[in-house]
């Protein structure tokens, strides 16, 4: 079975420019001339957050550092994940302290937290990332994300020289289906995003039905509109899930 999970720009050969891309592009383009930005790219699972991020960064030729996090188990608690996060950054950047990490990060146009941070299990067998860990622990992960917020507020002076782009989701699984607290729960999602926007910039990746049809046909020109519409009714406007369903059928 083909993998429609985008993990790098090399996986974006079928990418098309939608309205979501046209919203994200100028936001990331402005990072060439500004510092101190913290941008959350949100969207329901399967909508293509990664494809939009990687394609935009490649077109802009930004000097980016992509952070990664390889956890040995989803059973780790929030403190253990937090410690592993900083240890990984220190080792990869050759830093000895958290202050040195901030200094190193300031040398890049953007620090990216995307697929090899959230979902490294697609790259390294036996490892998991923040995505699966969040899915496993559900609401209990709020302590970790509050700690992230606290770190952000504590080091706002250091972060004035750093741009951060993060692919953000808060995943829960119910009856085998993945849902994102930030996008799939209407009023609750609106409240959570509203709060997120008090501290950060937020760009949402979503599509119209017409754009989904165009995306699917870019992969498979022979796929009929009626078949795609039936899958949209089942999966919503989530191209990856529709492509996987088409391949299974």
- Helical content band: 40-55%
Shape: globular
Q: Low-confidence parts lasting 5 or more residues at pLDDT below 50?
A: none
Per CATH, the class of the largest domain reads Alpha Beta
CATH topology label of the largest domain:
Rossmann fold
Give Rg in angstroms: 18 Å
Can you walk me through this structure?
With 249 residues, the chain is of the alpha/beta class. The chain has two domains: 15-206, Rossmann fold (3-Layer(aba) Sandwich), CATH 3.40.50; 208-249. Helices cover 47% and strands 12% of the residues. The chain is built from twelve helices and seven strands. The mean pLDDT is 88.
Features:
alpha/beta, Rossmann fold, five-stranded parallel beta sheet, 12 helices, 7 strands
What's the quick description here?
This protein has 249 residues and is an alpha/beta fold. It has helices at residues 19-29, 49-60, 78-93, 98-105, 115-118, 130-137, 142-154, 156-159, 187-196, 209-219, 225-235, 239-248, and strands at 38-42, 64-66, 110-113, 164-168, 171-174, 177-180, 201-204. Helix 1 (19-29) packs across helix 2, helix 3 (78-93) packs across helix 4 and helix 10 (209-219) packs across helix 11.
Write the layout of secondary structure elements.
Layout: H1 19-29, E1 38-42, H2 49-60, E2 64-66, H3 78-93, H4 98-105, E3 110-113, H5 115-118, H6 130-137, H7 142-154, H8 156-159, E4 164-168, E5 171-174, E6 177-180, H9 187-196, E7 201-204, H10 209-219, H11 225-235, H12 239-248
Parallel strand pairs: 1-4, 1-7, 2-3, 3-4
Antiparallel strand pairs: 5-6
Helix pairs in contact: 1-2, 3-4, 10-11
């Amino acid at each position: 079975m083909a993998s429609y999970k985008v993990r790098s720009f090399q996986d974006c050969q079928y990418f098309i420019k939608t309205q979501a891309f046209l919203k994200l592009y100028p936001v990331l383009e402005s990072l060439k001339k500004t510092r101190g930005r913290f941008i959350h790219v949100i969207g329901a699972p399967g909508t293509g957050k990664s494809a939009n991020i990687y394609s935009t960064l490649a077109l802009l030729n930004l000097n980016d550092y992509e952070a990664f996090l390889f956890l040995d188990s989803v059973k780790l608690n929030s403190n253990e994940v937090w410690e592993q996060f900083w240890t990984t950054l220190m080792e990869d950047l050759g830093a000895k302290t958290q202050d040195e990490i901030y200094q190193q990060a300031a040398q890049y146009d953007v620090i990216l937290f995307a697929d090899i941070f959230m979902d490294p299990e697609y790259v390294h067998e036996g490892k998991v990332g923040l995505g699966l860990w969040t899915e496993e622990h559900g609401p209990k992960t709020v302590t970790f994300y509050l700690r992230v917020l606290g770190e952000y507020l504590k080091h706002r002076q250091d972060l004035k020289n750093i741009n951060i782009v993060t692919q953000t989701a808060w995943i829960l699984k119910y009856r085998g289906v993945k849902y994102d607290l930030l996008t799939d729960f209407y009023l609750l999602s609106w409240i959570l995003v509203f709060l997120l926007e008090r501290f950060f910039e937020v760009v949402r990746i979503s599509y119209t039905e017409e754009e989904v049809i165009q995306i699917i046909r870019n992969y498979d020109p022979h796929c009929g509109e009626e078949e795609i519409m039936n899958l949209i009714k089942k999966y919503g406007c989530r191209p990856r899930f529709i492509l996987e369903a088409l391949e299974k059928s």
